[in-house]
Amino acid sequence: MKTIKKEKKLCLICMEEHEVQTVILEDIEEFKGEEVSFDATYEYCAHADEYLETEDMIKANSLAMKDAYREKVGLLTSQEIIRIRDKYEVSQKDFSEILDWGRATITRYENHQVQDRAHDDVLRKIDSDPKWFLQMLTRAKGKISDKAYDKYHKSASTEFRRMKNRYLMDSIQALYADFVDDIITGGVELNLNKVIEIINYYASKVSSLHKVKLMKMLWYGDSVSYKRRGKSITGLVYNALPMGAVPEGYEQILDLDGVEFETVLYDLDRMGYKFYPVEGFQIKELTPEEIEILDTVIAEVGHLNSQEIIDKMHDEDAYKCTGRNCTIPFSYAEKLSIH
Length: 339
Hints:
alpha+beta, four-stranded antiparallel β-sheet, three-stranded antiparallel β-sheet, 14 helices
């Protein structure tokens, strides 16, 4: 028995005024053929050595018992259902409408009724797939108010972008799963958060940062780090493409949340990307030593245009001694032109 509160009041057990304890006990009950244990709350009278459930306690204990059952058989608990609904900032009634269930279904699931397996599967799908929720929301547009629809659509879209970023990170990590040789990884595991911070840091310090130049500056940052410290900053693996070093998975990297750019027209036939820092950018992952390395790269090549930095890259031993479209080993960092 664990006491969580003491209060002097009229005891409904012995009908005398004295200090009444609110306590938690482990209860065991059978529900739908399953024996479950759970924490139940009671009032305790020390004079009579008896326990009492108030009306609110009866409801709370019943829900605790049913949640214990749900956990045992692999169903979402009431709190997990509430968390899913809160994620999309949707009301109980509107959530039921969006799912095309009875209006009070979600309210019952969150308060006293155990959901069936089919409904549980739907809730799990919505939790893991914001895009599916957006599709169901669109289908239910006429059943809820326009104001509520706009609110839910905004929340779900934000969640979808967040999940999309996680999927992108997972796909990039999968690309790097086979790269285990320190000489091509720079001796560190891929850290996409640092990659994003470096892109933002370069973009905040270099007035005109385009994709070709950014790719080379990423390589220079990792190579200078390897030359000075025996390890790179990011764990990116670079390939020797015609215009110089380009990290593996660069297209997915540029789609990550936290990387901002605008499309620019160079001439009638060529489009490009110009990068800029996200609003409120702050350094959280990079160390002072790593920032110093990036500042060195900015001082050396930040003023160069795209063609100039390509030419500089082409003069590096790391590029000249690596076959085209092959992975650039960090062993050439010792001969890097930047110190």
